[in-house]
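Chapter review: from sequence to fold.
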Amino acid sequence: MFGLCVSFICLRNQAQLPKVNSESLASAVNAGKLLTQFSDALKPAAFISSWTGQKSGWINKAQKVSDAISMAKTVSSLAGFIKPSLLKDGFNSKSLTETAGTVKTMTDAAGLLKTLEGGLNLRLSQASWAGQRSGWLSALNLLK
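The token string follows.
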């Protein structure tokens, strides 16, 4: 009897949960937040010296990103602050910058950020990034 009551309560509560579709999830994902999470995941040693003086300005711009073009420009500028010697072999920052100029959609911009993230040596990221990365990538995939 007790089990039946618990099952009924669970089913009733479950039935009252709102339906969330992928479109509403995508609109809740914030590109600026994803950009700043990524920059915070990088060790300070990953950046060239000018990052120190320009970090707060970059963060302010990144937090306001709301369209594909501004996101692409922000990703490109972040790539310019990363020490070239610390990138994976074969990764080309110049190519990333050129691609940034062709971005038209948020999906393209998200792909650009994924490309940058994939071009970094894992030793450049904070230890906590390993636990955050998969959720970050999932959220990035929701940008439309």
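Two observations follow directly from the output. The longest helix spans residues 2-15. The chain is about 65% helix and 0% strand.
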